[in-house]
Write a structure and sequence with these properties.
The protein has about 550 residues and is α/β, with parallel strands linked by helices. The chain is built from 17 helices and 23 strands.
Length: about 550
């Protein structure tokens, strides 16, 4: 860990906002550099104007491509648009509005001139489409956010009518078309000045906050929280949930304190992450140091929570356990929900990513529920959440959502506000903190040790890792145990995982290439302790290097 991790950012750590915004408008990408082209990852196109990877030409081209994509798909309803608090988010939203209005797209932006969390946008899309008469136009949306990324980054994500992240067919088409438009000097992009776009008859307003906050009793037992008097400390971490938390407390009469209502596009109040960067990662002890310290210094909260910049991730801090590991909280949430949501389909399955903890597998078995293990990416949970057949979907990176009390869909994108409030419901109903409940699960199922490390790899080696087949792995043992599975496809849906997962009775590892760096990521877990985990990690690296070299 870097020496200043967990300490408050200093002036030299802060992004130069003037340079950032000037570069957004003044810098054009060099399309011969792959890093400056449009590329959609699991959460949209991300980059920085200072690196010529998130500039006005990118946004104009992506938006025109989305206009053409939705036309080709017959999507003619309103397009809901959300933005977070990153410095590049408002300029990017304005650029997008110029294109959308010029193309006659009906756009709905925040009625309060504020910020909109990703889950509130997903909720708005789904609510519109559920209430629309059969055959009526369906809505979709755009979220302008790079999630928990540093202040100098921007992000742009498309959510189709199912309300969740677009699949690779959609994002591949959009990215290809956007790059074509860039290569043609933006010929083919329709655009009008932003003032005209905001005044256009096709540009309207929508109260995202009220739609979301007023519907929370359909998905959470807020009465239990209120009656138990659970004391909640909510830290928006300078993100889009800033106005939502105060309204949640006020409208639902909860004992809730917004511990830091500051919005600052430089995030000067943040504590530095593990690598001395400002990063709004609510699952990181370093980034969450202020809230953790507040709890350890005697703050009178039963539950404290944090959210990243677009509030699609959650961090849970308890008085007795500090910041919970995301895997630990997922296990507790699953165990609680499937025991207490009597309105859910009794056959509904549990969804997790293949790099999430195996204690979830053991919890699922104890509940008598089928576990569906999918590749990394929340998009894989969308069909189950929509149908109610998969009432919960969660990722190891502190992203999850679950269905309403009656089993119908709440959001099909990650909802950090929902999961944060669930911690208070769990405390109210069980009389125990989520960390105490996790201790009970480990007493029953074992106490796994989990970690992720990076290993160096060339672009060619990363490509080889992404194309492996199980037969490429000849090893029969891992860290002294017989290998029981070699996976290059997710067992839950048969989709390619873009890497390799190897499983034994008490351990596993998964290796996946990074999309942005010359490394591959090794996720590993052992139920036999920290030393065994180190052995798993070392043998995993040797195994993977031997196969891809």
């Amino acid at each position: 860990m870097a020496s200043r991790a967990g300490t408050v950012a200093q002036p030299q750590d802060l992004v130069d906002l003037t340079a950032l915004l000037d570069a957004y408008y003044d810098v054009s990408p060099d399309l011969s550099d792959p890093g400056q082209r449009v590329a959609f990852g699991t959460s949209g196109h991300r980059g920085s104007s200072l690196k010529a990877s998130f500039n006005e030409p990118h946004i104009l081209a992506i938006t025109q491509a989305i206009v053409e994509y939705r036309a080709g798909q017959g999507i003619t309803g309103p397009l809901y648009m959300a933005k977070d608090t990153h410095g590049l988010s408002e300029p990017a939203q304005n650029s997008a509005l110029e294109v959308l209005a010029a193309n006659g797209v009906h756009v709905l932006i925040d009625a309060r001139h504020g910020y909109t969390p990703t889950p509130a946008l997903s909720h708005a899309i789904l609510t519109h489409n559920r209430n629309a008469a059969p055959g009526m136009p369906q809505a979709d949306g755009i979220v302008v956010t790079p999630s928990h990324n540093p202040p100098g980054d921007g992000g742009f994500k498309y959510n189709p009518p199912h309300g969740g992240p677009a699949d690779t067919d959609a994002t591949g088409w959009i990215a290809n078309r956007a790059n074509e438009l860039l290569e043609n000097g933006l010929r083919g992009v329709k655009r009008i000045p932003v003032a005209d776009a905001l005044a256009a008859g096709t540009t309207g307003k929508f109260d995202f906050l009220s739609s979301y906050v007023d519907d929370l009793p359909s998905v959470l037992d807020l009465n239990a929280i209120r009656e138990a008097g659970v004391r909640i400390g909510a830290d928006p971490m300078g993100g889009a949930s800033v106005d939502y938390w105060g309204e949640i407390g006020e409208r639902h009469h909860l004992n809730l304190t917004v511990v830091n209502p500051t919005v600052d596009p430089q995030w000067a109040f943040m504590t530095l992450d593990w690598d001395e960067k400002i990063r709004m990662d609510c699952s990181s002890p370093s980034a969450m140091a202020s809230l953790i310290n507040r709890m350890s210094d005697g703050a009178k909260f039963d539950v404290a929570t944090g959210n990243d910049a677009d509030a699609d991730r959650h961090g849970i801090v308890t008085p007795d356990g500090g910041l919970m590991n995301p895997n630990h909280y997922l296990a507790v949430a699953i165990d609680y929900l499937y025991r207490h949501r009597t309105g859910w389909n009794p056959q509904s399955v549990i969804g997790k990513t293949l790099v999430s903890s195996s204690i979830i597998d053991r919890v699922a078995e104890s509940l008598g529920r089928k576990l569906v293990e999918v590749p990394v990416g929340f998009k894989w949970f969308v069909p189950g959440l929509l149908s109610g057949e998969g009432a919960f979907g969660g990722e190891e990176s502190a992203g999850a959502s679950f269905n309403k009390m009656d089993g119908s869909v709440w959001t099909t994108d990650k909802d950090g506000i929902l999961l944060a409030l669930l911690a208070s419901e769990i405390t109210a109903v069980t009389g125990k903190s989520p960390s105490q409940l996790y201790k009970g699960l480990t007493d029953q199922f074992g106490d796994p040790v989990y970690a992720r490390i990076d290993a160096a790899a060339t672009r060619e080696q990363k490509a080889a890792l992404g194309k492996l087949s199980p037969s490429d792995v000849t090893a029969t043992e891992l860290a002294g145990e017989t290998i029981t599975a070699k996976l290059t496809e997710a067992p839950g849906n048969g989709a390619a995982i873009g890497g390799l997962k190897v499983v034994t009775e008490n351990a596993w590892f998964a290796a996946r290439p990074s999309g942005t760096e010359d490394v591959y990521k090794i996720y590993a877990e052992s139920f036999k302790g920290a030393e065994h985990l180190k052995q798993v990690q070392a043998e995993a690296k040797a195994l993977v290097d031997g196969v891809i070299s």
